């Protein structure tokens, strides 16, 4: 067999292996992230639908409760990702699912604001490492050429969980009031927390750590995938940091952390406060909606954003353009939404912003994974995700505090826009830098 023929056969085996692995792994990962993201942001539906009133939460206190999750998340992201790299995704992801499911379910029995804040902090501790662990896990299975597409499919769970979650959460709150002697928002926390515990069992039996141990895949496909991933890892290792410490102190990793901070700032500002903004249409425009109608309206930007995410990932091959353009568009449109003359125009602007945020997210993760590998990737991805997700604390706190101080959400949304535009600018500046460290 000639070398060209061998290379062609290897490429064919890689493609078939990617398809097989995608069909086997990606649906499960989407389901896991769906439950993960819903448990993280469902406090946004609980707040304006009984929780704030029952617990006596101001907008600022609600922002603290929503955002303190990310303090615990920040503290354990890097250690958790290194442990996943050490012990394997199957064991570590199953552990994460059990602990976050227990805490998420316990939120149904919150007696006061202090306990709510403690449980949200513990939820962040429990979930730490899940998302960056999956991003790292994808580097074990998919070469760079296919990874952005697989990451995009995985991250469709964000708009799906927010769109479908808005409807499901609203229905549970509206119709579950009184179940088990609990308020509707408490029933929502209970019902949406249990699936994480059940999925831990599924992960233990179905998630496969690497191609080399995938008994459900033909041996030649396993070998071809392992060779392709290893070859890319060697190239990345030559260019990027060679150690955990090198990744943690890399200027490029820190710059990428800021980019992620800005994009995710927009995501969490929408996730936590869009239900409140929709509920506020009554005062701003004189339009009133039932709880279920509010859920349906909240779902629209994410449903459209889901389509935008998939189409944009397919059409844009340049990594810089893939991130910078949608981040810029989203940043420009979010503050505009609150200056529209009626709720329908406002929702158009919010929807365009959601499209920008969601289209930027999967493309972003092709930037650090093209630069990091091995333990350096585990540490660098964990650091980027933890620092970026500080926006999950800052966004709800700042938005809530500015709402309390000014009486509306406009100034808070201008801050959201500024954060996203800054992310676009830094992404564009990074295109011409190497940012390489060989530590």
UniProtKB/TrEMBL annotation:
The chain crosses the membrane at residues 21-38, 58-76, 92-111, 117-140, 152-175, 187-207, 253-274, 294-313, 320-338, 344-365, 377-399, 411-430. It is a multi-pass membrane protein. Residues 25-435 form the Major facilitator superfamily (MFS) profile domain. The keyword Membrane applies. It is found in: Cell membrane. Keywords: Membrane, Transmembrane, Transmembrane helix, Transport. InterPro entries: MFS, MFS_dom, MFS_trans_sf. It comes from the Bacteria. Pfam families: MFS_1. This is MFS transporter. It comes from Pseudonocardia xishanensis.
């Amino acid at each position: 067999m000639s070398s060209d023929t061998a290379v062609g056969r290897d490429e064919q085996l890689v493609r078939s292996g990617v398809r097989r692995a995608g069909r086997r792994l990606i649906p499960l990962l989407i389901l896991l992230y769906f439950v993960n993201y819903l448990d993280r942001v469902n406090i946004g539906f609980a707040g304006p639908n009984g929780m704030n009133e029952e617990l006596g939460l101001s907008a600022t206190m609600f922002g603290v409760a929503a955002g303190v999750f990310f303090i615990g998340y920040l503290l354990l992201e890097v250690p958790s990702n290194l442990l996943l790299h050490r012990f394997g995704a199957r064991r570590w992801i199953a552990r994460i699912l059990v602990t976050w499911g227990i805490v998420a379910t316990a939120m149904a029995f919150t007696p006061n604001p202090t306990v709510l804040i403690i449980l949200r902090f513990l939820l962040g501790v429990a979930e730490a490492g899940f998302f960056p662990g999956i991003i790292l896990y994808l580097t074990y299975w998919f070469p760079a050429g296919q990874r952005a597409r697989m990451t995009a499919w995985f991250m469709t769970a964000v708009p799906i969980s927010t769109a479908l979650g808005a409807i499901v959460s609203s229905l549970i709150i509206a119709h579950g009031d009184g179940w088990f002697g609990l308020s509707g928002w408490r029933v929502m926390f209970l019902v949406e927390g249990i699936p994480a515990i059940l999925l831990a069992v599924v992960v233990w039996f179905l998630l496969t750590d690497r191609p080399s141990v995938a008994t459900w895949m033909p041996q030649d496909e396993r070998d071809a995938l392992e060779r392709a991933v290893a070859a890319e890892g060697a190239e990345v290792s030559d260019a990027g940091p060679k150690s955990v410490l090198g990744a943690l102190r890399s200027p490029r990793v820190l710059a990428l952390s800021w980019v992620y901070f800005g994009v995710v700032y927009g995501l969490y500002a929408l996730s936590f406060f869009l239900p409140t903004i929709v509920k506020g249409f009554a005062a701003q425009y004189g339009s009133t909606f039932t709880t279920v109608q509010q859920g349906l309206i909240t779902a629209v930007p994410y449903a459209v954003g889901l389509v935008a995410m998939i189409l944009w990932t397919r059409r844009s091959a340049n990594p810089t353009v893939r991130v910078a353009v949608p981040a810029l568009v989203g940043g420009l449109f979010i503050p505009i939404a609150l200056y529209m003359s009626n709720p329908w125009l406002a929702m158009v602007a919010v929807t365009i912003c959601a499209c920008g945020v969601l289209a930027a997210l999967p493309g972003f993760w092709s930037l650090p994974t093209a630069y990091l590998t091995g333990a350096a990737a585990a540490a660098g991805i964990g650091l980027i995700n933890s620092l970026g997700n500080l926006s999950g604390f800052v966004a709800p706190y700042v938005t809530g505090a500015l709402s309390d101080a000014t009486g509306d959400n406009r100034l808070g949304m201008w801050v959201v826009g500024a954060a996203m535009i800054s992310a676009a600018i830094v992404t564009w500046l990074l295109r011409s830098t190497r940012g390489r460290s060989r530590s």
